[in-house]
Fold:
Amino acid sequence: MSAQTPHYDSDALPTETVDVVVIGGGAAGLNGALMLARSRRSVVVIDSGTPRNAPASAMHGFIVLDGTPPPEILKRGRRQVREYGGQIVFEEVATAEPAAPSTDGDLRFAITLADGRTLTARRVLVATGLRDVLPEVPGLARHWGRNVVHCPYCHGYEVRDEPIGILATGPASVHHAWLFRQLTDDLVYFTRGTELDTDTRARFAARNIRIIETDVKEVVNDDDGTLSGVRLTDYTFVERRVLAVATQMQARTEGLDGLKLPMEDLPHNMGRRFASAVAGTTEIPGVWVAGNATDLTAQVGASAAAGALAGSHINALLATADTDAALAAAQKTTG
Ligand SMILES: Cc1cc2nc3c(=O)[nH]c(=O)nc-3n(C[C@H](O)[C@H](O)[C@H](O)COP(=O)(O)OP(=O)(O)OC[C@H]3O[C@@H](n4cnc5c(N)ncnc54)[C@H](O)[C@@H]3O)c2cc1C
Structure:
């Protein structure tokens, strides 16, 4: 058990080869596991317990579940996976790599957990999510997910009409400005050394978005610790209750090097993701990827849908492999 991993519960790992190991138990991993378990596949989800939206008090923008606390969604998801025989283990994957194939030539993967336990799987679904990298502004990180936000659809409505500041990190921040302007009349754009062309400046002016080009020195709080604004490098204080930041999004790769999954950079330094094709397939036979690990802008609904699609695709390919093996065995007996 790694230091940061909450110890919800833990089961003995299967000693026999399981059909699928899912690495990551967020929306993507759990929905993949649900599809597999309901198809009577043996599936083990390994989850290190640090989902991306952990700082948020409620999940928004996904019908039926809108307003539900993220831990409650995961708790319900885990319960549903378990109801169909899926297993959830709270631990970190330390290594994952291809192993020697079975005697009938089927793929095998060896997974080692941070506590040293091991298991073998026929297929792997990577659903490890991503890490948001914030710009290095003193005092910013402590408000992340509450008064420092990145997603207008996740928590924009909750900060409507507040004095909001966009801390620019690149071209994506201009897009951010249009979306947050829809939520408040009081918007300030801190350029932080990024370029703004003449056309964008005119468009900002037309929408009453103020531009501040003096660099931001630090985030300032009220006495009770609430975010109250930013101090500029010339010591001017600009009152703001909310700061919006386009983070750099990095797919989580811990423990996965052995799978040798190809990765891709997004333009404008927006982030890095695992490359994938239809249904989350990758260039590595037997390994799928779903959710934020490959789709950096996916929200909870899209991540869950991608996990479900990958899970059903894995099941379909396993059904073909099982049939191929049965046919080969039958032909060996009769031949
Ligand atoms: C502050 C904030 C608020 C958000 N609010 C919303 C919202 O309101 N609505 C919405 O739709 N979206 C929201 N999002 C986006 C949402 O968090 C993602 O869409 C969603 O979490 C993606 O699901 P996922 O399963 O791909 O990844 P995650 O939910 O991040 O799950 C990945 C899991 O993999 C585990 N993991 C990683 N590496 C390993 C390893 N080596 N071994 C074992 N386990 C591992 C992690 O611990 C984690 O539990 C928000 C994001 C942030 C940052």
